[in-house]
Structures are given as C-alpha cells and as structure tokens.
C-alpha cells in the first residue's frame, strides 16, 4: 500500500471549550504525527474533547484546525460537518453493524471506488489488522478483541487525516490489550498517521503514546512530550493526577 | 350465504392505510427522534392525537375538512368528478389517520433505541445522514418499526367510529367488517355478527402475537 | 443473535413495497365510482332508509329486483344521521326518512330533488318487551318499578324517539321515569337493547315488533305528533329515475301489501283505532 505523505501529517491544533449539560471542559493542545494520548481520570472531559474534534459535539468557543483548515470556529460560524472532516474513529465498544458482515462493515467506510473495489480495499484492511479470516463470520459472534480489530480497519479504510481512538482497549482483557496496542503502534508508524487516543490506562502512556495531554477536573489541559529514555517522567505524571 | 365483501373491503382498506401510515409515519418518527426544531412537540402531539381522540371526533373533523362543502372536498370533486367522502378512499383516509400514531410512537422509540455510536461511526466515515438512516438506523430499528406497523394495521382494520362518519355504512361499497358487524347486530342477524366478530378477533390475536414475537426476539 | 444479513433485508423491503403497490392498485380500482358516468342501465341503486323500515324494505327490495332487475342496497340508520351523511355528500339515490323535516332539510341543502318529495307512510309506536316480560296495558303503567330501564330512540335525531318522548310527556309520566330512560342510536338499536334484556321494556316502531312476531301494546296515536314519513330522490339521471321507480313501487298494490303487513298506515287510508 502506498501512503499519501502529503496528508499524513496535517497536525491538529485544538483550543476549545465545550459544554455538555452542566459540564464544561477546556482543552488546549497540538497533536502532530504520531500518537497523542489524552490522559486523566474518568469524567475529566477527555471523550468530550474527542467528540468535539470529531464534530459530533459543537464547541462553545475556540478553534479546531486540521493542518491549515479550520473545521470549527463558532465565533466565525464555522462548523464543518463530521462527514467532511475525513476522520477515522474507534470507540470503546466497536459499534459494528450487527446485520452486516465484518467485510461489509469495513467496505462501508471506504470512500472511493465501485462496490467491487471497495470490497477489495476492505479485504486488504482486514488483512492489515490480522482479521482477514473473519471477513464473513457473523459479526455478532466475534469476540471483543476481534470486533475492535475490525473497527480499527473500518476507521483506517477511509484514509483519514486523523485517527481518533476513544478508550479503544478498556473493554478488553490484558493479553488482547497488549496485542491491539502493538497493532495500533505498528499501523501508525507504517502509514505515518496522526492519532489521538483517549485513555485512563498508564500502560497506554508507557507503551503507546508519543506525547500526553493531561486532564485534571476543573482546569485547562497541559501537554507533555514523552521521552522514552526518561522513565521518571511517568512518575511525575502519576503524581500530577493522584 | 355469507357476504364476504366487508372482509375483502376491510383488508384492502387497511392494507392501503397501513402503507400510507408506514410511509408517512416512519418519516415522522425519524424526524421526531432525530430532529431538533421548533414545533417538534406540537408535531408529535398532532401525530399522536388520533390515539386519544374519540374516533367520532376524528370522523367529525374529517367530514368537516374533506366534506363536499369544504375547500378540499370541492377541489377533490373537481379533480376526480365525485365527492371524496362516503367512498372507500375516505375509509382509507380515516384508517390511515387511526394507524399513524402507532407507527410514529413505536417507530420513534425504536429509532431512539439505536446505539448512537453506530450512527456516529458512519458519520465519521463520511456518510450523509440519509445514508446513515438507511444503513444503520432503520435496519437496527426494524423490529420496533414493524411492530408499530402491525399495530397500525390492526387499528386500521378495527376502526369503526371515524370510518362510519366519513365513509358511511353503504353495503357493498363502504361497509367494512366492523361496520357490518354493527349492522348485523342492528338487523338481528346474530350468525353474521358472530362470524364477523370472530374474524376480527382472530386477526387481532395474530397481530398481537406477531408484535410480541417482534419485541422479544432481539438481534 | 443476528437474524438478517443485508441482502435478505433488502429483498424483504422490496417485497413489502411491491405488495403495497398491488394493494393500492386493488383499492384504487375498488374506489372508482359505483355509479360510472354514462352508464345506460342501472343494475343497482342505494337507498338511505330510517331503521323502522328495515324489515319491510328488505322484503320490498327483493320484490323490486324481481320485478325490474335493479337491485336495491339499503343503508339503515336514524333519519337524522342519514340526513347528515346526505348533506355531506353521501352517494345515496333515495332518502326514506321517518319524518318530513329531515327530508325538507335535504332538499334545502340542494341534495334532494324537490319535485320527488312524497309522504309514503304513517308510522306507529308500541310498547314492546320480549316474551316472558309482563307487557303494560298502557303507557301510564311504565311508572311501575319493575321497569327499571326503559329504552327509547335518541329523540335528538331519531323521529321514533321524538314520538316516544312526546307520548311519555302527553301521558304525564315523562318526569317520573326520566331517570330510567336509556337511549338507542336509532329505532332498531333501541329494539336490540330490549331484545337483549338490557332494558326491561322499550318504545319501538310497530313494524319491528310485527317483524319479530311478538306481543306489543299500541301507543295511542293522539299522544304524539303523527309520524309522517317522507321520501325524496337524492340523485339525478338514470339513478334518479330508478330511485323514483322504487318510490312508485312503494305505492303499488304489491308495495302497499308489504307496508300494511308491517303495520304502516298508507297515504289515503284512515288511521285504525288503537
């Protein structure tokens, strides 16, 4: 597969406040190529930020820019619909269509080509997440880990500018988590992707993230680059959130 | 000899009414479940009203709005050469309105029950809202929607009050099975009344069994 | 478990739509006028008739069909309800009411052919109860406590109900039994209420008591305004002619024989003493 380098690293600039009911969260960070983790305790607003970046929620103020293009800026009346942001997204629960086969679920997300071509591309994405053998298995009978692999293939099949992962491993057991974490890492590296992952699992920070955005209830986020050769960084982060 | 016309007419009228109520009702159910617009509450109230209105009141309003002295009735007469009221078509209108709330309410609940993350996943994948409705929402909600349609069919088949007011009781033309049962009782024809009542009760049981099986077998 | 894969769901949806289209076509055909414009012969007319006429008219309809080849379909109801339907465009060809004023109203609305208006019968009311119930000898005896519920037709839109109410008032018993009155939609509904023992006794049309072949007590005609029953043709053209022919048939020797048998007093005849 050839990767289009020009769209591989648009970088994401986020400076927004989003209100859901009585809950308000302010986020201010930049994510460039690689994996940026939004980290913090449950209820600190990580998923709200992700949904706002996806366009599923509208911010009250601020801007979201994918590379040079501003996709949200309420002050200037800008709100690019989710459909037109060219994203890939994986949720905590796979969210596959139970009445469609795994192959169909991935083919639905392919944006170009006729039916045959879309199914070919979907098949190749299934192979890349090591789920080629599951193409026609009834979707509802798949294990949680298998479903997440297919959800990952679906998120990538649309050739997104940005991959959003919302607690993608939290419903899985430890061995499955480890193998999926490695899969995400490999795919991001292989295709030069920009990814944002929401997590409250320190193992994700240790083994997956290139940088972390810290969420603490009631305050604006802070960003930290992670240097693999400095393990004390992790301890400092731990102290910050406990 | 038993006169099968009322049963045949009832089946035709309620089948057509069910199709009309399903087409309008699914659209309305989707709009009410997903839309955020002014007057949504009012729209829902109006679409639900035939459930709580006495059928005779519904019939009265239909007679007033579609009758030969109304603008709609006069326009219809100019277009088709005869009045709309007291025809099988008028019975279809009455039955459609009686069936509509069941499709709208049951359908709306089923559509709201669809996991929003499934729809979000398709939205992220770039599909327009109408594609999401046909790929995800309606297929996932199909059991509830079908249950609503089945209930609507039963209601359309059973309507008496609105139909008798707007379509009358004309044997061989607008006399549906429920009206024929009433007429048989009036005429003292007990065996015909019994046969008609048994058929209607039998159909009702079949419909309710269908609805139950639709709501218990989950995907 | 997952039941439907995509193609079968699609196939089913297509099936439903095709079925719907077929159903619509069927109803569409059925909905076309029962009176095709330009038809040269009339094989059926539809008559709106007051419910006291049911037994007599069903017999007359068959006799008329045997004589002319034109069948008659009846829609029975209270005269007031039928008037409402005709004024609103119900496609009846003849309206046979249980009084005169509803016929006048139909003519005033432009739905009746004024020149065809005619009195065709005088109705009588009776006290009636199913066999086994002691029948009062006069209307005054209705005050007896054994008649816990007394059925009459709704006087608002049923002329026979109005006559019953007038008779009760003339006899001076209306106020005393008012709380025991139950109202039928029309006179045959009233008859069914009594027949099914949901009321001990009723004031119904003589014709219905005769058709049932059971005992009755005639209410003196002077206790209420005469139940003059009038009819009017409510369509024009071929169907109007056929409807007028049926109206004439009522006054023919064969028609009079049937009407008299069901207790109606015909125009030109004296009221029998009760």
TrEMBL record, chain A:
Residues 6-242 form the ABC transporter domain. One of its GO terms (molecular function) is ATP binding. The keyword Nucleotide-binding applies. SUPFAM superfamilies: P-loop containing nucleoside triphosphate hydrolases. The keyword NAD does not apply. Keywords: ATP-binding, Nucleotide-binding, Transport. PANTHER family: SPERMIDINE/PUTRESCINE IMPORT ATP-BINDING PROTEIN POTA, SPERMIDINE_PUTRESCINE IMPORT ATP-BINDING PROTEIN POTA. This is Molybdenum ABC transporter ATP-binding protein ModC.
Automatic annotation (TrEMBL), chain C:
It comes from uncultured Acidimicrobiales bacterium. Belongs to the bacterial solute-binding protein ModA family. The keyword RNA-binding does not apply. This is Molybdenum ABC transporter, substrate-binding protein ModA. Molybdate binds at residues 79, 187. Pfam families: SBP_bac_11. PANTHER family: MOLYBDATE-BINDING PERIPLASMIC PROTEIN (PTHR30632), TUNGSTATE_MOLYBDATE_CHROMATE-BINDING PROTEIN MODA (PTHR30632:SF14). Gene3D superfamilies: Periplasmic binding protein-like II. GO terms for molecular function: metal ion binding; molybdate ion binding; tungstate binding. The lineage of its organism: Bacteria, Bacillati, Actinomycetota, Acidimicrobiia, Acidimicrobiales. It comes from the Bacteria. Keywords: Metal-binding, Molybdenum, Signal. One of its GO terms (biological process) is molybdate ion transport. NCBIfam families: modA. InterPro entries: AvModA-like_subst-bd, ModA, ModA/WtpA.
